[in-house]
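User: Just a sanity check before I run the rest of the batch. Below are the structure tokens for the first item. I only need the designed sequence back.
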């Protein structure tokens, strides 16, 4: 045994002496972990950091009752991107919500397959509407995001998948097409419900499971100066844990599992237009569900058969024509309507509280493109209410 060890040791020494003259020092010093590579000059040129944040004050106003306001570090997001080479990069966002909750908002690898087409894989934002993709606080008016992008499009909506993102410049089109996991519809209890539609079913990449893949797609047109128009679609089924270890020959169990899912068809149309300090934007989102009667019967939920939401907004930068002023002062007005019980299955009663209208007006003062102070006044009510509720909102938003 000792002779064998001595033989191995002598061979290692011999190999080391022979290769010492030939080994490239750079190869021998290649890092083997992130702690060894993070401070490399090469990495410092490829690694990028950023982020955005939102701090809010929401004060309900009631002429008959005192109401406490709410102060909240609503969200703080840390962005990191790494460019491996001219064609390959990795993007991620780590989100802290309400100080105490931590999420991953994006985490995907992007490879440029062709000059105008990339392949993406990982935790991806679903391209539906405007805000779900472009949600940095200084980029939208109002302290809070539009509620259409909360109750109808469950922003921030992201799931794990794979797909392509590309442009057809000759036609002024950008396209996105992804296969992703669907909403968690049943995990022992019914998750989808009338009050907030699909929102509770987002899996967010947190130990997600998949029963059947869903399709997400969007086409944007940018051929007219100042105008962007988008058409979105999302099609598939919700997911259910009842399909796990399901005997393919057990017809009764299959029928039960089938009752725990819904079919989802969602379409969206959005626009953004800017000219000489004037800005307007809006979107329309419609969702139609199938198998809702069976789902509600099985889970005891009150999910509607369809959802509808839309808003339109106008704003104007008062300082636009004054070149000596570098700030922006932008009053705005937005009208929203959204209904998670736009239609219900036969025999089910529509809940008018889920049919909501909002009027929001206020302004944003931008010290810089990425730093804004916001204030707005919000009037909102459900169809079951006779008068509007009132809310005063103030906040700061940053993006860097």
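Assistant: Here's the designed sequence for the first item:
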């Amino acid at each position: 045994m000792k002779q064998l060890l001595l033989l191995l040791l002598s061979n290692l020494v011999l190999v080391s002496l022979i290769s010492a003259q030939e080994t490239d020092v750079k190869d021998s010093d290649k890092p083997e972990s992130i702690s060894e590579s993070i401070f490399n000059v090469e990495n410092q040129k490829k690694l990028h950091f950023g982020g955005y944040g939102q701090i809010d004050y929401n004060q309900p106003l009631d002429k008959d009752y005192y109401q406490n306001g709410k102060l909240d570090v609503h969200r703080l997001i840390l962005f990191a991107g790494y460019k491996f080479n001219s064609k390959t990069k990795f993007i991620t966002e780590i989100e802290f919500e309400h100080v105490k909750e931590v999420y991953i908002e994006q985490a995907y690898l992007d490879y440029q397959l062709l000059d105008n087409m990339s392949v993406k894989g990982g935790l991806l934002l679903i391209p539906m509407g405007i805000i779900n993709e472009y949600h940095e606080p200084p980029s939208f008016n109002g302290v809070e995001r539009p509620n259409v992008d909360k109750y109808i499009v469950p922003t921030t909506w992201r799931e794990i998948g794979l797909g392509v993102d590309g442009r057809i410049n000759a036609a002024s089109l950008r396209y996105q097409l992804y296969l992703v996991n669907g909403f968690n519809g049943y995990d022992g209890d019914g998750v989808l419900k009338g009050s907030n539609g699909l929102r509770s079913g987002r899996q967010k990449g947190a130990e997600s499971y998949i029963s059947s893949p869903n399709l997400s797609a969007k086409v944007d047109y940018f051929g007219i100066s100042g105008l962007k128009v988008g058409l979105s679609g999302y099609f598939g089924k919700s997911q259910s844990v009842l399909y796990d270890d399901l005997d393919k020959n057990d017809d009764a169990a299959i029928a039960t599992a089938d009752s725990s899912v819904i079919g989802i068809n969602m379409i969206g149309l959005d626009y953004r237009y800017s000219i000489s300090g004037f800005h307007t934007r809006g979107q329309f989102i419609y969702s139609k569900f199938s198998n809702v009667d069976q789902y509600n019967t099985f889970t005891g939920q009150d999910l509607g058969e369809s959802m509808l939401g839309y808003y339109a907004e106008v704003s104007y930068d008062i300082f636009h024509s004054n070149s000596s002023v570098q700030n922006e002062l932008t009053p705005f007005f937005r009208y929203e309507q959204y209904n998670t019980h736009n239609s219900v299955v036969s025999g089910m009663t529509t809940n008018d509280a889920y049919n909501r209208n909002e009027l929001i007006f206020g302004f944003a003062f931008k010290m810089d493109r990425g730093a804004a102070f916001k204030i707005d006044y919000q009037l909102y009510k459900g169809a079951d209410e006779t008068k509007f509720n009132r809310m005063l909102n103030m906040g700061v938003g940053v993006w860097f």
